[in-house]
# Entry
Amino acid sequence: MLTLTLLLNGCWDQRQLKNVRMVQTVGVDLLGEHKVRLSVSIPTIKTAIENQGNVVTPKVNGIGHSVQEASLQLQKMVSQHMDLRETRVLLVNKAFAEKSLYETLDYFYREAQFPISILIAITDGQAQDVIELDVEDRSLISQYLYDLLESNKEEGIIPEESPFLISSIMMTPGFDNVLPVIAALQQKERAKINGLALFHGKQMTGKLDMNHARTFVMLTRHMSYGTMTEQIGPEQSYLTFTYKRAKQKVKLTIKEQITADIFITLNCFLVDNPTGTTLDKAMIADFSRSLEKVLTARAEETIRQLQQANCDGLGIGLQMKALHQKTWKTLDWNKEYPQINIKPHIQVNIKNHGLLN
# Structure
């Protein structure tokens, strides 16, 4: 029995819920005069009558010269120890992201209880404004923001991100981060996905609007599906398609200039026909060609913006490193990437055109 007691760990490292305050949403803002503001939402059950209570979500913030100092200032206003293990969403304002995203994340990565599955987004305005939204259909702002980001992933509007890989991607030549942008709609007490933030290394260097954000998702190696509406129908009408990417392939060619050909095949399904015009095979083929032209032109503009921001969000550099190691060693990819020739080739297959036809 004495021997077995050596195997018992006991409860020396326990953290009881009654002694901590669980933080679920965190926002970091870079202010003027080199000041940093850390804002958090802390869901709390407020008991009014015995065995009854309602959830309130206090939103507090602290200001310091760094995220660490802002955290210490914030702790002075919170009645118990702040615990980050249940954090679901981390928001960073655009000004801080343009300075250095890693400077923001360093504090959180050093916290032993910080979850690796957290969702990270960039805010157009102040992160505090998003956290302080009073959303009608959600009691918790953390739940609203988490569901907002997840649903937009499922719709193919923003790409799948790996939160625990963000810092390592910053240090990896040939691949850059692309994160969703959120804007606060103060009049409607809502937040809105407002595009994608483009990064080169540790800094935000550009932004894609919503149309080009969806196109970027189509070009990535991750599975892509969603809905799109384009003005290519009869009588210049707008047609809505659901789509699913069936194929994605990148072919690298090294001659006088590095060329990356991206081949995309989309299976599309027409879900409306506002004009009521009877559609035949010839018209469907014409829709396919028109859609290919629209998507190819948009993909070319998306790639141009990526190269202008020096953001290799498609990971072409990693493929270059894997397939052409000797050439890769001779390149300065930071200078080479904006100059390479990237060509999108999009093929559209419209599988059906509705039950009425």
Summary: Residues 342 and 357 are 39 Å apart (CA to CA). The mean pLDDT is 85. The two ends are 80 Å apart (CA to CA). The domain at 220-357 is CATH 3.30.300.210 (GMP Synthetase; Chain A, domain 3).
